[in-house]
Amino acid sequence: MVEPRNDDEKERHSSWLENFYDLIAAIVVAQLAISLNENVSAPGYLQFAFLFMPVWLSWLGVTFYNTRFETDDVQHRLLTLLQMTAAAFMAVNIINGLGTNSVGFALSYSAIRTILVVEYLLTGRRVRSARPLTGLYSKGFIAAIVPWLISLFVPTPVRFYLWLVGLAIDIAAPVLFTRRLSTRFAPHIYHLPDRFGAFTIIVLGVTILAFVDNIATHNWTLSSILSAALSLSAAFCIWWIYFDSIDGAAVRAFRREKKMVAYFAWVFVHFPLLVGIAGFGVSIDHIVLSSPDSPLPTSDKWLMCGSIALCLVSLAVIRITSFRSGPMPQGEKLSERNQAFYILAAAGIILVFAITISGLLPLYLVLVIAVTLAVLVMLDIRHHPFHRILKLKLEN
User: Fold this and answer.
1) pLDDT in tens, 97-114
2) Are residues 378 and 241 in the same domain?
């Protein structure tokens, strides 16, 4: 049965079906990381990010539908099964997705979005009050699907230009339509941050899993062991910084005051964050498997430094959306503002380091990054309200 969400103040977490879908989406990300692993270069990274966008948007569409409507009937489960099947087909075709498998990739993305349109249309039939939303979203998503379907019959590179048109419509439609709709069916205050957090941690875990799988037969040395340990500590720091700032303030402000800029910034900045996390996972593989006594190739250095910087800038934007999204104690607002500045400064330091230092050994590079991220975590422990409150409770 399709029901409008009726209590946005009640805590709500991901369902078992949502978690299942996340795992399928994570497999797609893992397959995409394999493509980047085989082509570590500026064009390879751009192709990786380009293919990542439809993967992320397909997950985003399913997530936003589920957070708007509490749906768990047979029909919804079967439609979700079809979406997961299309996502699995996407995983098969994403390797060489801009080459011989581009038609299969376009078909799989079109299928996922078409099923989403069907869900919105069926919901509009059952929930009269949701029809303004379901009607607009269905029209927007259908308009986005058309260029993808047309692309099946045209050669490359025109095919990819049509993909760009479709992606642009997919992004623009919800932004434009949201202004015309009430907040009654806006995303759930607790559920949406929970979904974003769950997918972020799954992507982080999958990239680490790929790294572990690739180095399982590696001949370990002290240098490679230290590089692996420091890389994992850096991943842990990214997790720490992210989950200390994902409080849903932007979603709350949107629902209560319809503050759209911070809300959409919070939503869309997760795309570069996930791209950075996945790229960082690939860079760990290259760092650990590289010769400990030879300077790191420039492409590998930039893969790690660029991915970490991308993550940090995204994390800073998430912090900024928190203190700009609504009233909070002055001390907490100042703390979030300061932490955002520290994160941006760390991103700048890493980029300057990548530009100015050449001929660097792998261990030294990952040491610099791990130490920089560890300093951010220590600053977070010192200034974050949660840790200050916990410290006071322990002292009392």
Assistant:
1) 999 999 999 999 999 999
2) yes
